[in-house]
Amino acid sequence: MIRGVRLPASTQRRSSSRSARRSVSPARKRASASSGSASDLSIGVDIGGTKMLGVAVDRSDRIVAEARVLTPHAALDPVEPHAVGSEELGGPHDHSSVDVRNAGRSVGVGVGVGVGVGVGVEVADAVAEVVESLHHQLEGHSASPPRGPGRRSSAVHVPVGVGAPGMLDREGVLRFSPNLQGATGADLRTLVADRLAGTPVVVENDANCAALAELRLGAVRGAADALVVTLGTGIGGGIVSGDRVLVGAFGFAGEIGHMVVDPSGPPCPCGRRGCWERYASGGGLARLAREAAYAGRLNEVVALAGGDPELVRGEDVTRAARRGDAGALGVMDELGWWIALGLTNLTAVLDPERIVLGGGLGEAEEMVLVPTRRAFAHLVEGSGARPDVEIVVAELGERAGAVGAAMVARAGGLG
């Protein structure tokens, strides 16, 4: 069996009740480099909408090192202003990890050369920096300075798994990615492997990696058929069937965020209109919040944002909702309805016994779960005549994708 992270006691399940799950606490005790040899370790890097998060995992199921950097394409994404990742849903802000890039450096590198090679190179360089930082932590050193483009890591050959958003084929080529458009067409596996000089590298879809981690270690355990939905800048999905993560004929399974729910809806970076993630993601919450602000339903929130409705962000709404603001609670109800609409469509196709919501839920968990569950019960086909579908929160928090990528590295892939 694939092994992964053993969560410290402070981050274990706080209750046997599914509704009592919380995300993993950012605080964790680091293991020393002497806890195992390089052959006992694997590394996972999760490429997110605004940052890359990397972890090193040992065979005793512990995260022994962690690092993060800015995602190079972040300034180029054709998404709305303020739709900037899991923080839109009020997710945890953890600044305890090593940041090995200059936060003030421009992260824009222009549209990819040819078929995404330009930005793909930048992404691969950033992945190599994360891996190098993890190795330095394991060796008891501070992070090395940022490496230049095309430089090779001198790190030992610990297997590396990379989780990337979008349609990755079985060879690790990013065929299409609405939220990583500059790198579309890039051979990420080859680019990363070239920078890690002989290191085994596997590249898989990020949500599939998260689903694997939740299946082996988290909220999917005990459910042979489940759906893992990651709500961040966009929406990713991992389909668990028969106790394994499905990748599909070409590796593209789980692109659920681009299921169209309103053909006349807002434009999506994928090139179509009305995709589910334009309504039900962190970016969707930001859009719903601004619409409510312009309609005069978020006066208190607008005041806190300096009086400009365009400056209202999703996290502003979640803060106001926690204080009981009626307008903010209304926006959260609307978000929950859109999340539930997509989940009922997927339930009609996949018939899961459990749905796990991850990504940026964080402290907004109950404000999202309650309206989502309520709307789901009303919208799902055969409501009242079918067994209940559990809707729960992911247990591994923002580290699920990176942990799953490390597990994939150890196993040599998902397929």
Describe the structure.
With 415 residues, this protein is of the alpha/beta class. The chain folds into 2 domains: 9-211 and 398-411, 2-Layer Sandwich (Nucleotidyltransferase, domain 5); 222-397, Nucleotidyltransferase, domain 5 (2-Layer Sandwich). 30% of the residues lie in helices and 15% in strands. The protein contains 10 helices and 13 strands. The protein has helices spanning 117-138, 188-195, 206-217, 277-280, 282-294, 299-304, 314-322, 326-350, 365-379, 400-411, and strands at residues 42-47, 51-57, 63-70, 98-99, 160-164, 167-168, 174-176, 201-205, 226-231, 235-241, 244-246, 354-359, 390-393. Strand 12, helix 9 (365-379) and strand 13 form a beta-alpha-beta unit.
Number of strands: 13
Assigned CATH architecture of the largest domain: 2-Layer Sandwich
- Please give the CATH class of the largest domain: Alpha Beta
Determine the CATH superfamily of the largest domain.
ATPase, nucleotide binding domain
> What is the count of DSSP helices, taking H or I runs of 4+ residues?
10
Protein structure class = alpha/beta
**Helix percent band:** 25-40%
Strand line-up in the sheet with most strands: 4-3-2-1-5-8
End-to-end CA span: 15 Å
Strand portion, in percent?
15-25%
Q: What characteristic shape results from the CA principal axes? A: globular
* N-to-C order of helices and strands: EEEEHEEEHEHEEEHHHHHEHEH
The stretches of 5 or more residues where confidence is low (pLDDT under 50) are 1-35, 74-114, 141-155
